[in-house]
């Protein structure tokens, strides 16, 4: 039954959110582990970004001239120099659209 | 010392730019649910009960494609397993809270909220009410996700597919990590996990989403060993 599966998926997802927050105590985290946990954003987000840019909906590589590659590179450069989230997203999306609709 | 309300507002303000991509993504999700043949109620229920963007799309796609519930549920669990890592990072700052508060706040832990609130915690580790930052960022993300899903359910077909708005998600994540590109060790770790994700993309149950960060953390461990 599909309604049941929504609830199970929801409970499972909630478990992934609450388990570490409730189980881990400060004493359990060594200085070394804390150093490694510092890298969490740097390992999780690229794992979503890279396939999102380099692969198409079917998991095949896009070509080097794909608008997604142009958009992502623009966002990277603008984001790096401006440190502004809105400019990063807007520049990435608009350069992506320029390639799609103008060229 | 900032008040609870002040920190709550900072949380909203810090995550606000990311709504630029969360909002269209919610609309796309609502539209996909209807397009795949699910009822408005069923589509919306996933936003309320699962509350995890990409995993909701995969969930509905698998169910509509005739996959068993077990496969759909497993995939949701795997995609959302990255929250284990977020929870481990945040636990240190939430430790002082009562169990009830921890359980309530946990519902609001999502990618963008984790990213901006973690940055705030690192800068203000001793602030007494700093968890209000996570409540602020989490509640506004939750609210926008619910509203945009409903808009997508009823009006999503108006948004042309050619706009490719799904691309807003990699962009919002680029905005999150772009500052870390100033650190060489982080750049290396990003390349390792990103390339691993691309390589393992077709692994069953979307396991690339958790395999690649773990490979990245392993690389980080080695780099830290070598630095000593």
Account of the protein in words:
The complex is a heterodimer of chains A (103) and B (228). Chain A has helices at residues 2-23, 31-37, 40-54, 67-82, 85-101. Chain A is mainly alpha-helical and 103 residues long. Chain A folds into two domains: 1-29; 39-101, no CATH class. In chain A, helix 4 (67-82) packs antiparallel against helix 5 (85-101). Chain B is globular. Chain B is mainly alpha-helical and 228 residues long. Chain B has two domains: 4-177, no CATH class; 183-228. The longest helix of chain B has 25 residues, at 131-155. In chain B, helix 2 (19-35) runs antiparallel to helix 10 and helix 11 (184-199) packs antiparallel against helix 12. At the A-B interface, helix 1, helix 2, helix 3, helix 4 and helix 5 of A face helix 3, helix 4, helix 5, helix 6 and helix 7 of B.
Order of helices and strands of chain B: HHHHHHHHHHHH
Q: Report the uncertain regions of chain B.
A: none
Biggest sheet overview of chain B: none
Most strands sheet of chain A: none
What structural category do the secondary elements of chain B indicate?
mainly alpha
Largest interface: A-B, 68 and 87 residues
Radius of gyration of chain B: 18 Å
How would the global form of chain B be characterised?
globular
How large a portion of the residues of chain B is in β-strands, by DSSP E?
under 5%
> How many strands of chain A?
0
How many helices of chain B does DSSP assign? 12
- Specify Rg of chain A, calculated over alpha carbons: 19 Å
Strand content of chain A: under 5%
Summarize the amount of helix of chain B as a percent range: over 70%
* Overall number of domains of chain B: 2
Average per-residue pLDDT of chain A, rounded, comes to 95
């Amino acid at each position: 039954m599909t309604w049941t599966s929504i609830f199970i998926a929801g409970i499972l997802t909630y478990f992934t959110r609450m388990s570490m927050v409730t189980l881990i105590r400060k004493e359990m985290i060594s200085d070394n582990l804390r150093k490694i946990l510092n890298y969490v954003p740097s390992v999780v987000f690229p794992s979503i970004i890279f396939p999102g840019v380099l692969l198409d909906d079917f998991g095949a590589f896009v070509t080097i001239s794909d608008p997604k590659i142009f958009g992502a590179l623009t966002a990277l450069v603008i984001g790096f120099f401006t440190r502004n989230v809105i400019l990063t997203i807007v520049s990435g999306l608009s350069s992506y659209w320029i390639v799609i609709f103008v060229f | 010392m900032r008040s609870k309300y002040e920190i709550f507002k900072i949380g909203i303000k810090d995550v606000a730019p990311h709504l630029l991509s969360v909002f269209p993504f919610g609309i796309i999700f609502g539209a996909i649910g209807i397009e795949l043949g699910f009822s408005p109620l069923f589509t919306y229920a996933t936003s309320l009960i699962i509350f995890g963007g990409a995993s909701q799309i995969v969930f509905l796609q698998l169910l509509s494609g005739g996959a068993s519930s077990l496969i759909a549920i497993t995939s949701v669990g795997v995609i959302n397993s990255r929250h284990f890592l977020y929870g481990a990072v945040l636990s240190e700052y939430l430790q002082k809270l009562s169990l009830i508060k921890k359980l309530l706040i946990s519902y609001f832990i999502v990618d963008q909220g984790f990213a901006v609130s973690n940055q705030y915690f690192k800068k203000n580790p001793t602030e007494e009410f700093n968890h209000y930052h996570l409540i602020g960022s989490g509640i506004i993300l939750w609210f926008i996700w619910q509203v945009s899903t409903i808009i997508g359910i009823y009006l999503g077909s108006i948004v042309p597919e050619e706009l490719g708005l799904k691309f807003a998600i990699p962009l919002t994540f680029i905005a999150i990590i772009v500052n870390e590109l100033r650190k060489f060790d982080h750049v290396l770790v990003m390349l390792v996990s990103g390339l691993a994700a691309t390589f393992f993309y077709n692994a069953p149950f979307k396991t690339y989403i958790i395999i690649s960060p773990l490979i990245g953390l392993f690389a980080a461990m080695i780099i830290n060993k070598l630095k000593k």
